[in-house]
Amino acid sequence: MASASAGAMTAANGAMASDGAKVYQTNCSSCHQATGEGVPSTFPPLAGNPTVVGDATKVIHIVKYGLTGKVVVKGVTYDGQMPAWGTQLSDADVAAAVTYIRSAWGNKAGAVTTAEVKAVAQ
Ligand code: HEC
Q1: Residue 94 in contact with ligand 1 by CB distance below 6 A
Q2: Which residues are CB-contacts of 100 (< 8 A; sequence separation ≥ 6)?
């Protein structure tokens, strides 16, 4: 898929918004903000977040099935609730959104495919 890497390359400046950027703006930016900076102590930042650019399977799992409990990001503790998106978004949308957050705002991690999202079980 040539378009996946092109999307990742253009995601950073927002030009030629990929599907992932659109999925993110629609479903994620209300909490994590369009800048990926989040809201301190309430919604963790995704920009410069080691978890987001770390193990892809873990990121997919969080987005698909949600997250509760304490996480510490950049020295700030979050103890909130991340909704599960697997019931609302298609595997392709989750793949696009995860690819976007791993490549936007200076983040530099690889794209994930729809097949990878499908394979991550609860
Ligand atoms: C209603 C607010 C809300 C929305 C909308 C939301 N999130 Fe979250 N997200 C959270 C909260 C709160 C946490 C931290 C959960 C915790 O404290 O356990 C979180 C955590 C995360 C994490 C893990 C961060 C870490 O360091 O462990 C990722 C990745 C993530 N969200 C991605 C997304 C994506 C992608 C979307 C859109 C599909 C999205 N979020 C939509 C509230 C939200």
Answers
A1: no
A2: 7, 11, 18, 20, 21, 23, 24
